[in-house]
Amino acid sequence: MSESTYRIQGDTGEWEVVIGLEVHAQVTSNAKLFSGASTEFGAEPNSQVSLIDAAMPGMLPTPNRECIRQAVRTGMAIGAVINKWSRFDRKNYFYADLPQGYQISQLFHPLVGEGQIEISLDDKNPDAETKSIGVERIHVEQDAGKLMHDQHPTRSYVDLNRAGVALMEIVSKPDMRSPQEAGAYLSKLRSILRYVGSCDGNMDQGSMRADVNVSVRKPGDAFGTRTETKNVNSVRFVMQTVEIEARRQVEVLEAGGKIVQETRLFDPDRGETRSMRSKEDAHDYRYFPDPDLLPLELDDSFLEACRASLPELPDAKRRRYEADLGLSAYNAAALTADADTARWFEALLAESARVQKKGEQEVARPAANWLLSDLFGALNKLGKDLDTSPVSPEQGAELLALAADGTLSGPLAKQVFEIMLETGDPAGKIVEERGLKQTSDTGAIEAVIAEILAKNPGQLEQYRGGKEALFGFFVGQTMKAMAGKANPAVVNELLKKALAG
Amino acid sequence: MTDVTDLGIAELRDGIRLGKFSAREVADAFIVKVSRAKALNAFIVETPDHAIAAAKDADAARAAGETLKPLAGVPIGMKDLFATKGVQTTAASQMLEGFKPVYESTVSGRLWDAGAGMLGKLNLDQFAMGSSNETSYFGNVISPWRRGGGDNAALAPGGSSGGSSSAIAARLVPGATGTDTGGSIRQPAAFTGISGIKPTYGRCSRWGVVAFASSLDQAGPMARSVQDCAILLENMAGFDPKDSTSLQLPVPKWEDNLSGSLAGKKIGIPKEYRVDGMPEEIEALWQQGIDWLKDAGAEIVEVSLPHTKYALPAYYIIAPAEASSNLARYDGVRYGLRELAEGQNLQEMYAATRAAGFGDEVKRRILIGTYVLSAGFYDAYYTQAQKVRTLIARDFDNAWAQCDLLLTPTAPSAAFALGEKSADPLAMYLNDVFTVPSSLAGLPAMSVPGGLDKAGLPLGLQIIGKPMDEQGVLNAGLAIEQRAGFVARPESWW
């Protein structure tokens, strides 16, 4: 564990930033927290609203077991205390997008208690600089609907599709000290949620968003007054919010002003945070236990089933890749940061081991390198991701096998891969049809070499005169003449012999 | 020929089965009675078509030789707190005037499934808040009873299920649904000389019942006999996955197991229910009830419920607290009333809508509830009231170590005249003093008529039972009914 040394340089000296995040993560579930209505993104307004979501008279909530299960699994994934007894509370306030006039949440007795998330501050060497960020609690609550003000000149419309959707509110402790730490925490949290499958983590679709609490202090002082910047919806924006808001606070304090505890919003276009409402007109939410719902009591078998269903999590997976597969720390981290990447890699690995009849550790390195550089490079250029990759793990494994058994040289493999991306054809077919096989035919190679030496008497003389660096020149000429199909090892061997005279 | 409107649920059911009369004759007779009783203002909406359709189904089933459903062709009244599909459901509030739900409450749906027909939606205190039926937006319900001696003062039918009690007592319906939050079935039953049972909290689904105070609200039947209450309750109760506070228990055969013998039963008499200033007649009735139960074979024991005096204050914190939250949904956005003047904003729309749509008593309780839940007062009021509630429940638990059932008066007085207490909310709240403790504890409790006071008005006795012991409560009710021989009925003046 290390202390970040991020400091803001003010006129009166250095300032330290204190950050806490409240992350709202939409629970992956086909139905809302207390009704059977669908939760699909992007549907027609008000097409996914049950009588319960619309708070029709006499309607009652009933908890959706799947939402509870996902929140429990999330808690387990961060090593948190799971409260076997929790309770839903009503948070009362009036707003047109809140049909019941209250949100069902958990204030007094949350489902998940304290846990922690390990963050890493060095991408190249994830174990070099790590820090543990405390999670205060995770509670489940309903989302509100949304108001649309742009549909009519004088009217506002209400869309209740989101109303009642299950959210996990994941509240960190004020343990972060730099924008980098806040970004790393949010990325890591998102990675864990996606591994667990409890939230899709799609911040651009609003299924994950963060309220950013920031305060500043002189190092060693007590916590300063904090502000809360609402609904920040990307890792980059969270980092910017911290930076901008902390700098603003320093300026206010150094000018002799005071920080007001208030709610702010982040405007990425103008690169500033603005006041939304101050604490003075804060709501009195009048929380009290929801009398329509009995306390939530979880039994051991439910908890065991939750635990048994947890996948291998990113840190464990990264360490296993290093230890068992012999991957570099950097590659292991790159492959495991995202659940989809790890899944794709493991499919590639398993298929490679199968077709090459080798152990996974033997095929792991070339597979990792190919995925991280060749495939990611290609997908980047195409503007695609693994989900939409034109090449499947099975096809990748075939290509890797052809390279491993010497059928394809490195350059040939790259060439075949290009064609695969364009045509979608399997590597073997491309090799067959286009004759892109690597050749180790010594007779053919020797003939080409003889020709090259004859054509370049000057270089030959220099080489034999001691300029050994020219060896590469002869290799290049030979490969070129063989259209890249010659086996480089054979070329090397034969060239050495021929050059030696 | 008998006037079928004098018959109760069991007699109507059996008569239709045996072909003594047709369900259609029954429906028509009650429909006529309802249409001629406007002076009582017991109905907000009359639904003769619904009753006739159910009657036709029953007659057709009988003609086809089919087994009749448990309530085939029996017409009833439905308190207007139950959502009825396609039929205006208002909770007696302007806020919901004209609201026709696209859904049917679980309880009403079960009754229709059992073959019952609906004569109409019965008036009540607005959002079930009141003890006299003077808070309805659709006007006061008048009790069919009058004091003797030429006193023609209009009397309260009790509340909040006053439309139900009035209609049953006046023989406009043989039975009806009620809901009870702090006594809203039992007190009106007592005031009008009928029976009514609030079952154990969770017995009847609250789904589709306009909420007043969720942790207390419970539906139950009202009728002219204990047997009729048992029949209706059997067809209302049962587990409902749509209500997470619903009890996952089978519905017992209460009617089949009715017995007026209380041999081996111990009846507790809570000493704290002897309140100062209680009319002598109530005292005398209570003693009479004790004697009847002894006669039925029960042993009488005195018990103590030491926290009784805190029940009413606790109730008037918890119920309004929940109500203030439950009624937040009436905001003018999605259904019901909307008051929005040109140029007003959202906040102004809320304020105007709620100011216009809610009656005074509803506003009073919303304000009390908002206050007791507000930051700074929560612990002093709400938390404290919840602790009292726990102590009251514990009182009852302790009592069950000594007895099987409790006997108390239902209300501290007979029916009062309309207007007599409406200016004094606290005096009005005292009406619930005997019914509220068992509500806070979620226990089954019933009122049965015991006799008349000097003015000729009915008085009720209350039996309180252990959780889930509706059978014990009904049996003790039957024992009283058999001995009281209560046959008094209001003279028709309407």
Automatic annotation (TrEMBL), chain A:
The keyword Flavoprotein does not apply. Its EC number is 6.3.5.-. It comes from the Bacteria. Transmembrane segments: none annotated. InterPro entries: Asn/Gln-tRNA_amidoTrfase_suB/E, Asn/Gln-tRNA_Trfase_suB/E_cat, Asn/Gln_amidotransferase, Asn/Gln_tRNA_amidoTrase-B-like, GatB, GatB_C_1, GatB_Yqey_C_2, Gln-tRNA_amidoTrfase_suB_CS. The keyword Iron does not apply. Residues 343-499 form the Asn/Gln amidotransferase domain. Belongs to the GatB/GatE family. GatB subfamily. PANTHER family: GLUTAMYL-TRNA GLN AMIDOTRANSFERASE SUBUNIT B MITOCHONDRIAL AND PROKARYOTIC PET112-RELATED, GLUTAMYL-TRNA(GLN) AMIDOTRANSFERASE SUBUNIT B, MITOCHONDRIAL. This is Aspartyl/glutamyl-tRNA(Asn/Gln) amidotransferase subunit B. The lineage of its organism: Bacteria, Pseudomonadati, Pseudomonadota, Alphaproteobacteria, Sphingomonadales.
Automatic annotation (TrEMBL), chain B:
Keywords: ATP-binding, Ligase, Nucleotide-binding, Protein biosynthesis. Residues 26-474 form the Amidase domain. Allows the formation of correctly charged Gln-tRNA(Gln) through the transamidation of misacylated Glu-tRNA(Gln) in organisms which lack glutaminyl-tRNA synthetase. The reaction takes place in the presence of glutamine and ATP through an activated gamma-phospho-Glu-tRNA(Gln). The active site is at residues 79, 160, 184. It catalyses: L-glutamyl-tRNA(Gln) + L-glutamine + ATP + H2O = L-glutaminyl-tRNA(Gln) + L-glutamate + ADP + phosphate + H(+). Its EC number is 6.3.5.7. Belongs to the amidase family. GatA subfamily. Heterotrimer of A, B and C subunits. HAMAP family: GatA (MF_00120). This is Glutamyl-tRNA(Gln) amidotransferase subunit A. It holds the Pfam family Amidase. It comes from the Bacteria. SUPFAM superfamilies: Amidase signature (AS) enzymes. PROSITE patterns: AMIDASES. Transmembrane segments: none annotated.
